[in-house]
Amino acid sequence: MKRLVLVGGGHAHLSVLTALAVRRPANVEITLITPSPQQNYSGMLPGWISGHYKLSACQIDLQPLVNAARGQLILESVVGMDATRHCVCLGDGRHVHYDWLSMDVGTETETSWLETLGTKLLPVKPLDLFFTRWPEQLTAAQKRGSLHLAVVGAGAAGVEIALAAQFALQRAGVQVQVDLIASESGVLKGHHRRVQERLLAYAGRAGMTIHFQRAVGTPEGVLLADGQPIAADLVIAATGARAPVWLQLSKLALDTDGYILVDKYHRSVSHPNVFAAGDVCARPNTGLSRSGVHAVHAGPVLADNLLAVLQSAPLRAYLPRPHSLYLLACGPRYAIASWGPWSAEGAWVWHWKDWIDRRFVRRFTAYKVD
Fold first, then answer.
1. 370 inside domain
2. Position with higher pLDDT, 332 vs 320
3. Does the pLDDT of residue 370 top 50, yes or no?
4. How many CB atoms lie within 10 A of CB 316?
5. What predicted TM-score, i.e. pTM, was given to this entire model?
6. Of 42, 37, 32, nearest to 11 (Cα)?
7. What whole-number percentage of the chain has pLDDT above 90?
8. CB-based contacts of 159, cutoff 8 Å, min separation 6
């Protein structure tokens, strides 16, 4: 009996579980280790903040998928790993041994330079915590009647959350001021100039203030690089990601930022019985960004490769597409599309995004055991 352990209930592992349920490899003990019984789908986070979705519409229940794969679900966090001993350590002190391991644990938000904010700081990740704390912040703002919000980080997550939060607060009758803190490189780094222009124009129409410099946290809010203070009641951090710290002692080969180095098969370059997908891994020389888009696309390839190693079959390479489609929600039912040099915007883009997101969640929530 071979032991296949999946760590994390991320996008890629959803595809792995469904593939295991359909193909049902013989003599394999399957275990999923994840801290939450649901996956909160990040693609619908801005729509949920805006009030377009109930929380239940954004969640995927993992237990039915694990049952269909004839596996077991362990609701715990992994806090350590020894790749030489083929085991992971759980938060409750247990050790789980494996023959084959797949990692899809995501990342954490890098907030070390914002921690002086104390309780004013709300990191986007971990998502489970954000889904819990945002409604509390919205309720508190309604009671006060006003909120000065700063969002630090102007990548796709930062701009979507800033616009969604502004829309939700205004709709709740809150007098709100939103400051988006971008770096000197501007908004939506890596996207085409036309997409950036569309976003800046929309943010201007929405009355949002954007600062093109770095900032650090203070007890009152944030301090910009030029010395300008910005008082804030709440600071949402959508800043750079960091790899889980416990990977440093895992004995896996890591890149300079602490992410698991994988090859074109998403297999560890140092330990061939370990695979990784999603934000936790790094593929040198591919320009692969840390995005849920790639985790979704890599999922079926990861599933094929895990089934292949169980059957001693050839592996399949994951070849990233030259361009990825991003549909950036803008608060109301309006969105901006970005695909390489092509872009568009309008209510129809939001409905396109809504259709794609609902289809993704439905694919897994409607899964039945045959």
1. no
2. 332
3. no
4. 16
5. 0.92
6. 42
7. 83
8. 180, 187, 188, 199, 203, 328
Q: Angle between the 127-144 and 156-171 helix axes, to the nearest 10 degrees?
A: 30
- C-alpha span between 260 and 302 (Å, rounded): 15
Q: For tokens 């362990």, what's the residue?
A: 74
- The token pair at 13 is 């592992």
Q: In this structure, is residue 214 part of a structural domain?
A: yes
* pLDDT of 35 higher than 80: yes
Question: What are the structure tokens assigned to 368, written together?
Answer: 């039945």
Is residue 53 in a domain? no
Domain that holds residue 296: 2-35+76-107+243-320
pLDDT over 80 at 185, yes or no: yes
Residue range 305-316, pLDDT digits in tens: 999 999 999 999
Contact 53, 134 (CB under 8 A): no
Higher pLDDT, 297 or 20: 20
Mean pLDDT of 335-339: 97
What is the spatial distance between Cα 153 and Cα 50, in angstroms, rounded to a whole number?
19
For residues 114-145, one letter each, b for 16 or more C-beta atoms within 10 angstroms of the residue's C-beta and e for the rest, the string is beebeebbbbbbbbeebbeebeebbeebeeee
Token look-up 């292949």 returns 308
Q: Of how many residues is the chain composed?
A: 370
Residue 59's identity, in one-letter code, is Q
pLDDT in tens, 83-111: 999 999 999 999 999 999 999 997 888 88
Between CA 297 and CA 326 the distance in angstroms is: 13
Q: Is the domain of 131 the same as that of 28?
A: no
| Cβ–Cβ under 8 Å, residues 28 and 347 | no
Measured distance between the N- and C-terminal CA atoms of the chain, rounded to whole angstroms: 24
- Rounded (10°) CA dihedral 291, 338, 152, 350: -100
Are 219 and 118 a contacting pair, CB within 8 Å?
yes
Type of residue numbered 39: Q
